[in-house]
Amino acid sequence: MIKRVRRIWPLGIRMQLMLWYTGIFAILLFLFSIIFYLTLQSALASDVDADLHLRAQQLIAGLTINDSKITIADVIEDLPRLDTNATGNISTGRSNQVSHIGIATNVNFGILVRILDAKGRTIYVTPAFRTLPIPSVSVSQSLRGTPWQGTLITHDGKAMRVYSMRIMNNTTPFGVVQVGETLTPLQTTLRSVVVKLLLIAPFILVCGALGSYWLAARAFVSIHQVTNTAQEISAGDFHRRVPVPRARDEVQHLALTFNKMIKRLEEAFLQQRRFVADASHELRTPVAAIRIMTDVALAQSSTLEESLVVLSDVNARAERLGGLISDLLILARSYEGQIQLECELVRLDLLVSDVVATLKPLAVERGIALRVQKLEPATVIGDSSRLIQSVINLLDNALTYTDMGGIVTLTVEISGRCGCIAVSDTGIGIAPEDIKHIFERFYRADPARSQIGRGSGLGLAIVDWVVHAHGGSIHVESQMGQGSTFIISLPLANCS
Amino acid sequence: MRILVIEDDPQVGPSLKKGLEGNKYAVDLVADGREALSMGLAIPYDLIILDVLLPQLNGFEVCTQLRNQGSTMPILLLTALSEVDHRITGLDLGADDYLVKPFAFGELEARVRALLRRESSSRTAELRFMDIVLNTHTYEVQRGNRIISLCNKEYMLLEFLMRHPRHVLSRLKIAEHVWNYDAEYLSNVIDVHIYSLRRKLCEQKEPNVIHTIRGAGYQLREPLE
């Protein structure tokens, strides 16, 4: 088992998720608290204002103005009970019009009432209101008909909400009545809300963080399953698959992708194993032949002539073995992408006619007519040696699978933007079910037949690689008993 | 001509290989001393270009061991060490030439041509055989007054043949000197290239000079009268 080392930094994805969740949560919580606080504050304040407005109206309704004399009626429920006997005679002496107010001040310091005349002089004030300053705007604005409301600070630092409204004497403004209420209870309420929010918020945040960590953990459970299965799959154990969750989500996608990858690995692994087995078999056959021939020759103490025959046989087999090893190396290196093409301009028509001229003796030896039907000048960019090798391989195949008296025809022609080399034979043909396999390494439709040729079973695989490395394509047409045609198409060089 | 370049710098090595391939040489590139030694002993290179500072086995050691095992191919040392003592050490250990980094690639090309010349009879950049002239600097090939255009491999084949006139060269030997390690030896491919070269050289009914020696290989020699 792999020992898991827990590191703080860099943070794991789960920790990161948790931090992100918690951060976002904290911001939301903060915004919510601010909005909540502001809403509550304005709701409470407007309650106070509405209350004051009502009180002022009631007070005005209870006032009687008589010859500059003002009397507060005893009918207002909200006011402290007015007792005429206990009238606090507040004659200001500063007012000519108002000399007496009949008012009961059943003193309640919470109720703040102040009455001012049109010039802003105080006619009546309850004790708690006495020390409050009178902003001139409150009087002037109210006299114009617009009630004034504002927050004033008392000398001991308490906030006081004041509502100011004019008193009408018939049609002329007589004065102003101001009612007030301390804001201390409201502030106390708000402060306690803030304290509670500050106490609750960290708790909520911790809960949120834990919750998000748990959620993240839950989300990763299925990924863990995939990881565990992947760990259990070792080389050679490719038949196992990762469990695919039912929900169509990212994890399902991951599991499916993973399974596809394992399948490809399995195929590659099997292919590799088959290749090694095939290669060993192919290598063993000529080596076994060489051993038998030399063993027999050594055991029989043969003559010089007989030994020479054996030696030339051995030489031929060794050459074949060398070719096979070369082919194997080419393919191995091509799969690793190690081979670089040495590209230059190549004339396909000249290349094909040179190959035909070189292999003509082989065709003559086998009694097969080798013909060139058409040679259109076609120039491609490519590695001349690799292309020669490909044409030789195709021609060699054609000669191998064609019987004596048959015809092998080569053509070079331009088709669209491609130069095409076609190699046709009148040989045994390829069965339709074999066609898709013939470019595989060591694939042989007819194992017995291949012994005639010099082929290693890798020839077509090499041709396939060379053609594709040049950006070209290869295709095959064949009919059993009629013959086959291999056509290589290579992109033409962009030159006039 | 086949050259082994031993250079461990991941940029310098491939660019040397590419540059030399542009000069129509078959080039193998190796990055460490031990591998260089085994390749240098296994393959008959025409020239070895050897960096002195290498992992595993340094250039001086590679040079010493190659000479001790009887290798005679020219060796060109490349190094950033410009001390006179180093140059003396290198040349005394069996190196044929010494080039201090940084160097102009043109100078390296010229020194490579000069070192390859030592093995042949020609003392200039031109190789001559009968009426065939091959210029190893301009890569121009002429037969008589006719300029012949050859593809890379044909040029390399002709250069190899012209450096070894009248020698019978086996296909294996030709493959070893004209193709690098990436190209696997295939006798038929050589045959096709030789055929094409012969066709181009004899296009105007000139006598053939590349002779096939059955069972042995090819030989560049005057036509039999």
Describe this structure in words.
The complex is a heterodimer of chains A (496) and B (225). Chain A is of the alpha+beta class. Chain A contains 10 helices and 15 strands. A 5-stranded antiparallel sheet of chain A has the order 5-4-8-7-6. In chain A, a hairpin with a 5-residue loop joins β6 and β7. In chain A, α4 runs antiparallel to α5 (304-335), α5 packs parallel to α10 and α6 packs parallel to α7 (384-400). The longest helix of chain A is centred in the middle third of the chain and has 50 residues, at 250-299. Chain A is rod-shaped, with a radius of gyration of 54 Å. With 225 residues, chain B is of the alpha/beta class. The longest helix of chain B has 15 residues, at 187-201.
Provide a brief overview of the structure:
Chain A is an alpha+beta fold and about 500 residues long. Chain A contains 10 helices and 15 strands.
| Biggest β-sheet: strands ordered side by side in the sheet of chain A | 5-4-8-7-6
Strand content of chain A: 15-25%
Uncertain regions spanning at least 5 consecutive residues of chain A: 74-109
**What general form of chain B does the structure show?**
elongated
Q: Span from first to last CA of chain B?
A: 31 Å
Helix-and-strand structural type of chain A: alpha+beta
Task: Tell me the greatest interface.
Answer: A-B, 26 and 18 residues
Considering the chains and any ligands shown, give keywords for the structure.
heterodimer, A: 496 residues, alpha+beta, five-stranded antiparallel β-sheet, five-stranded mixed β-sheet, 10 helices, 49% helix, rod-shaped, B: 225 residues, alpha/beta, five-stranded parallel β-sheet, four-stranded antiparallel β-sheet, 8 helices, 12 strands, elongated
